[in-house]
Amino acid sequence: MRVRKAVIPAAGLGTRFLPATKSMPKEMLPIVDTPAIHFVVKEAIEAGIDDIIIITGRGKRAVEDYFDESPELEMHLEKKGKKEQLEMVREISQMADIHYIRQKEPKGLPDAILRAEKHVGDEPFAVLLGDDIIKSSPPCIKQLIDVFEKYNSTVIAAQKVPLVEISKYGSIKGKLVEDRVYLVEDIVEKPKPEEAPSNVASVGRYIFTPAIFDCIRATPVGLNDELQIADSLTILRGKEDIYAFEFIGKRYDIGDKFGYIEAIIDFSLENKEIGDKVRDYLSKSIKC
Ligand code: G1P
User: Fold this and answer.
1) How far is the CA of 223 from the centre of ligand 1 (A)?
2) From the CA of 188, how far away is ligand 1's center (Å)?
3) What's the first-to-final CA gap in the chain, in angstroms?
4) For 167-200, how does the pLDDT look when each residue is reduced to its tens digit (9 = 90+)?
5) Can you tell me which atom of ligand 1 is nearest the CA of 169?
């Protein structure tokens, strides 16, 4: 069955980016001039997904406004003859069919995913976490869809990380079944490096079968008093095979201050308008 729907959890409080996130959603933090969530929605669309469900919470109106029409702004740009900007603004509101579901309390990623159950129904679906921006061609989620279409079972994105960093991720133990594809044998949420099954980290892209919903319901409260996706995946593994795919591409962990700065530097270096100036500035300021 084709993957037609994507769930983007965006209900988190963004405490790692306080004070900026005190009054603005972390998903709206700009990478140069474009909010982070724009890249995530674009990735899903480029993978052929046209039905997107964003899980929001209190204080996330800016996300909905961003993907909505902006009549006043459009009128202003039209009057001023700013055609290019007008087109860009209009394109954003026509990007995809986006639906919003609110998560009343932040109870963890699995609970956010469960909110989408009624909309997703009985079909496989993608989940894209906004903290990971992945530059790749084909889009990372499309790479996962291709693996899903081969194995017809849940597929999660994976990346090797330095062992000291594995405590930020789900750690995967797997058996390599083909180039870059592991059959998952164990997954542990944020283990200490010395207890981790491996340095293969689960990162923020997933293709789930609808069987995940029952597994989430059966998931006990875990680490940090929240439901944890690795625990739901462990339950799912008792029912179907789970594959992990080491995707090809560059990932920016923009949920982390340093990862956010890396993204800003790389994206600004590639920016037609300011790329050369940034390169020049960086080389001068590093010499100082
Ligand atoms: C979540 C998941 C974790 C995964 C990570 C990827 O953690 O719970 O298994 O490895 O995303 O980014 P979070 O970063 O939301 O704490």
Assistant:
1) 12
2) 11
3) 57
4) 999 999 999 999 999 999 999 999 999 999 999 9
5) 10
